[in-house]
Design goal:
single chain, 118 residues, alpha/beta, Rossmann fold, four-stranded parallel beta sheet, 3 helices, elongated, binds nicotinamide-adenine-dinucleotide
């Protein structure tokens, strides 16, 4: 999908690295950007970089831990009210979180037979 001026893009983990660069690139394209991160101070730097790249751009920042469902719902509500829209054009799930416990082996793998013992 080609993102264009006026589109709404949501980026998780926008306070640093690739997430921040993504926000800046999207703002430079004329997209309205909403981004969340656990680091509020660094999020403010992202907003400043977006403004420097695209003066007058729309950038909504929200402090949020994406591993916390309630916090994510709060972010969604902040996007709805802050950008006055129920529709987004793109979601960049940039933050990696650990897998849920159900995907984590609960028992150690059996030792291969024939190997040296303890
Ligand atoms: N940089 C690479 O070469 C590379 C390669 C492959 C995959 N990745 C993946 O891409 C993503 C971004 O990489 P990066 O190098 O830009 O990372 P980065 O560490 O520079 O930035 C990650 C951002 O996510 C934020 N964050 C971390 N946990 C969070 C949470 N629970 N809730 C909200 N925000 C949170 C951090 O505060 C930080 O601002 C990561 O998921 C990484 O695993 C990166």
């Amino acid at each position: 999908m080609q993102l264009k001026a006026g589109h709404v893009a949501v980026v998780t983990g926008g306070a640093a690295g690739m997430g921040r660069q993504l926000c800046v690139q999207l703002a430079a394209r004329g997209c309205a950007v909403a981004t969340c991160d656990i680091d509020a101070a660094a999020l403010a730097e992202t907003a400043a970089e977006c403004e420097a790249a695209a003066p007058g751009c729309t950038v909504l920042t929200h402090q949020c831990d994406v591993s916390d469902e309630q916090a994510c719902l709060g972010f969604a509500e902040a996007v709805r009210t802050g950008l006055k829209t129920d529709r987004i054009n793109a979601l960049f799930n940039n933050v990696a979180t650990p897998p849920p416990p159900s995907l984590t082996p609960s028992r150690p793998a059996p030792r291969a037979s024939g190997g040296p013992g303890p």
